[in-house]
Specification:
With about 200 residues, the chain is mostly beta strands. It contains two helices and eleven strands; from the N terminus they run βββαββββββαββ. It is globular, with a radius of gyration of 16 Å.
Length: about 200
């Protein structure tokens, strides 16, 4: 992957995916947009972005400001259902480091706690036009938003700062899908006090 010699930052990559063509990223902030482009968010990034598209070691997990607190893949039954896939790739951002650029009035909500492993109420925020799930907020962590990596407009970030550092509900992962290299593996929720597998 091409890098800039001045900053040693990987070159941003914005493939056509969905209707929006105005996504962006800087050293400090990046956008996440729904499929139709009606809703767009911006989130603050850690200042360090690994120059390796797929690093041999995990990128630094920014557990302090500027707001990105966790990157993880989830194999729980809910993630299977609402992503219409085998797992979800997520990152958690402090709400103080997330802002709505457009479409806040277009966000719809759906909340429930019946199938959430922690028993907390989970509220899903999705685009009312195209149905893209943009983020979730747990009643157990109301100051954080669990965002979807696939909504991030700069695909370079998917392989660098947003690469999963954790994989949870590993026993529910399909047998044909391998471990995520370098990610800590958990039988259940990673923040539920469990020891990694």
């Amino acid at each position: 992957m091409a890098t800039s010699s001045a900053t040693n930052k990987p070159k941003s990559y914005f493939p056509l995916g969905g209707q929006a063509e105005d996504g962006w990223s800087t050293e400090d902030e990046a956008t996440a947009t729904c499929y139709c482009g009606a809703v767009q968010l911006a989130f603050r990034l850690p200042l360090h972005i690994s120059p390796d598209p797929i690093p041999d070691t995990l990128p630094p997990q920014p557990t302090k400001p500027p707001g990105l607190t966790e990157t993880f893949a989830c194999n729980c039954a809910d993630c299977h259902k609402f992503t219409a896939s085998m797992f979800a790739t997520n990152f958690t951002v402090l709400n103080t480091h997330l802002r709505n650029i457009r479409g806040q009035e277009n966000l719809k909500q759906y909340s429930q706690s019946k199938t959430i492993a922690s028993g907390n109420n989970m509220t899903n925020y999705f685009c009312g036009t195209c149905g893209s799930l943009l983020y979730r907020i747990s009643s157990g962590f109301p100051d954080k938003s669990i965002m979807r990596v696939g909504t991030v407009d700069d695909f370079t970030l998917h392989s660098t700062v947003l690469r999963p550092g954790i994989e949870q509900f590993v026993p529910r992962r399909p047998v044909w899908l391998p471990d995520i290299d370098g990610a800590k593996q958990y039988e259940g929720e990673s923040h539920g006090g469990e020891t990694p597998l």
